[in-house]
Fold this protein.
Amino acid sequence: MSSRNLTRKTKANQKPDLIEFENYRLLPLLFGEHDQNLVRIEQQLGVTLASRGNHVQISGEADAVKAARKTLKALYVRLDKGLDVGDGEVDAAVRMAKTKANGIDPKAIHSNELAIPTRKGNLTPRSPGQAPYIKALADFPMVFGIGPAGTGKTYLAVAMAVSHLISGKVERIILSRPAVEAGERLGFLPGDLLEKVDPYLRPLYDALYDMLPAEQVTARIASGEIEVAPLAFMRGRTLSNAYIILDEAQNTTPVQMKMFLTRLGENSRMVITGDLTQIDLPSGQPSGLRDAVQVLRDIKDVAFVTFTSADVVRNSLVARIVHAYDAQKKNDSDKNKDDGRSRHGSKEQG
């Protein structure tokens, strides 16, 4: 482990914070090879970290210093529990430290309380929005996860579904998506209807293969324990003893959404995920997801969790892309308001 000098200069009138860690053996893992974890925290929070022995000095703006302290403490506790720390865990700890979600501590990245057990290990929150989402998945029979791509909405829902299946809480998993993206192009694709829509269901298969060994996914699909089907196949069914997920729900119509939601049977759970900024429906066609948010907002046992660009857990560039689009949308909205006021003012002057 390389040493980072504690005597670095700090900004004027800013008192550096000093953390002491008890277990020397964990520090190489906490700091990372060539201090890469410390560098990563510095870059994301705009702080300066300097280590000597079992101490780390944090210098920077007060809020950033506080977030860096929370990040390092959370990662240290994770290591003390025997869990790994890599780039993903560092990024998750930083996100959780920046925004304390609903009173959930940054240490929730390794909390058993918020862990989803799967055959490939426990999944824990990696963003502020994921913490209340996992809690809602555990507590409510119907959950809406709404927000941009890359926030883990569908991935965590599939993880919870697999956990329920292997623990015997449900007898089957049903994963569905509307095939709106295909539109008229379906007729030009080779194969029968299932083969035509298969590319649009592929993200659901990908999530399953991350949760279960490939041979188990294949066997469970063959036995009917796992069903992946387009939304149109849900009509007329009552889905009991099942964990049901509707992905890309922004591309349903209000009629389709009502049809899907009323499929919920006894001892079943339902998760609906979507991104209201990526609606592919024909112009003028209202989104069933947007409609459901309005209609069901006060219904008991229905939870709504909204994600933002701060919750994107893919490549950090994805988060910046989402943020840039959000900023552009806000700028356009502000410009339209200003134009509207200008036109209104001109009329009054005339």
Remarks:
- The chain is about 45% helix and 15% strand.
- The longest strand covers residues 172-177.
